[in-house]
Amino acid sequence: MVIGKAAERRAQAFRSERANELRSLADDLYKSGVVSDVSPLLQAATECNSRPKNPLGWEYSLSDLYFDTLIPRNTLPKLEGRLSVQLSLSLAGNCEESSHDSFTELAIDIHAEIISPKAPKSICTWHLDKHIYTPDSNEPEFIHPLYHFQYGGYRMASIHAVLGQTLLLEAPRLAHPPMEAILAVDHVVSNYISGGRTLLLDEDSYQRRLRHAQRRWWFPYAQALLQSFDKAEDPSLWTLWPSIVRP
Amino acid sequence: MSDKWVCIDDESEAALGPYLTALNSGPTGIQIERASIQDIGPLIDGLKQYNALGFLIDLRLDEVASQSGTKAAFRGLTLAQELRTRMTEGEIQSLPLVLWSVDRKLRSSWDGDNTGHDLFDRVYVKDKDVGHNPMLVANELSSLSTGYANLRRRVGVGYSHFWKTLGIEEDEASGLDPRISEDLAGRERHFAHEWARFIMGQLIDRPGPLISEDLLAARLGIDRSKSLAWPKLQQRITVECGYDGVFADGWKRWWSHRLDAWWRALPFSPGPLRKITATDRVAFLCNNLNDNGLTAAPPILSGYSEHYWVICKGLDMPLDVSDGVVAVLPDLKAWQDRPYLSFKAALDRTGRPKWRPHPFEEARLRAAAQAIEE
Q1: Stated pTM of the model
Q2: Which residue, B43, B244, B31, is CA-closest to B138?
Q3: Residue A64 φ/ψ, nearest 5 degrees
Q4: Which chain B residue has the Cα nearest residue A22?
Q5: Which residue of A has its CA nearest to B262?
Q6: For residue A112, what are the CA distances in angstroms to A124, A152, A158, B350?
Q7: What is the nearest CA distance from A210 to chain B, expressed in angstroms?
Q8: Nearest-neighbour CA in chain A from B114: distance (Å)
Q9: What is the ipTM, given to two decimal places?
């Protein structure tokens, strides 16, 4: 397929814009003190801005962006120490895609841990990814929303022998709109860093960037969800929230 | 007068001669000519007559009288400032300025005060740097003068040649952080010594887009001292990732983004470097090279992670950022890597006074100290 120069230029502009968003996010996180080492975001930005194998595509990996914070109230077991949350993310997509399903690949790991002087390391991991449906794949045994959150995963599997009476199941897979780094960082800050979101939303640039990302990645998803109640004949909508009964 | 470095120093021939001889000897030696100390006006007029490759300036020019009994009424910093001003005004071409002195004088007169530090391209301790490794110093001086000659040609064309100076094309440079060159991009006039200071001070001396050999090895998880295959691997990586821009012959560096891309492009690459332990990185590389001569770098302490990405400034060992704290480094640019101290170095105060934990990291350090006490 011949790819036009104009399309390539638009794709490069898209990648450059996404990369600069990551750098600007890094600035806001560092200035606010929410994250002390923002280099994973800068690296992801460089990767995002370099020419990928698909000239009309974009991709990057964010490896271990660390957040350090107080242990939230009501955490069990009750431990002393601090909570460390590591965010990792890898995504790929097409630059000109702006639908409810904009990513060809998406995997996010949010790994929280407390290293306490009086107890072994305690961990809690959530994982968001995209389920890849193929034409010849069988109906999954359990419900699989296109983009879903799941508790546990391989990092918790490693401690399965010491889970006590805690049960680690693959289910439920909770439908959730896709997230790239801006949305994923906000998710972590909103859910794990006390006072962090308030601090960050004080920055105009953080607010603007977040609003823009929600509009770009979540609005089409929200629209598609609404449509899935009515447009039962559109199979691409079924996978967003398979719990919705098809007429 | 032929092309040489010009040395302005008040020390006697007996004191200075051995250093100059050491720098002059060997295949990479440089030629150095001494200028006689005078009042600053006549001295600068005299220096203009040299076809100098650079100026080697003593810190304290006002201590020892010359044979004619003249003692300078000014110090090296004053001379350097005057030379830089003349270079900016075009009276003298842009040349490297290097400060040297003995250790005790640098500590008493130089270390405590930052003013004037940006006048010099390099600072050498006579009794340590030149005394112990004159060939390294001579090579660096040679690289400085060659680099400056290159820069003088480039700045004449303008900012558009900045990335070419660093050995990369615009296309590749457009993928890097656009803030890297913003300081220079906005200027109306360009001077070789400003580009030199920026490249040396912000790119070569500080990790970020460029990394040094110890950081290269740390990111690959390798203990260089125990890896016989390291030179072979380093050579292979240098072909694709090596920095070959200005000053590369004096300071070996590698492009961080190219190392990332190189790793990802390896057959069966196991994913981002940062996500993999040193043991696994090394195992993969041994398999890839078909050579078992690489050894994984051990962690600083048992229980520390092997997901190395930085170097502990206190202990000079590879470190996962989760096992350390960010250290203070003034004037750090947003696109540069933060320096780190391992928890061990920070709590033992290793690396002080130069390296101190960042105030943002106080809470984490307290928690680490408490964990050790208990």
Answers
A1: 0.86
A2: B31
A3: 55, 65
A4: B177
A5: A47
A6: 5, 11, 14, 30
A7: 21
A8: 25
A9: 0.75
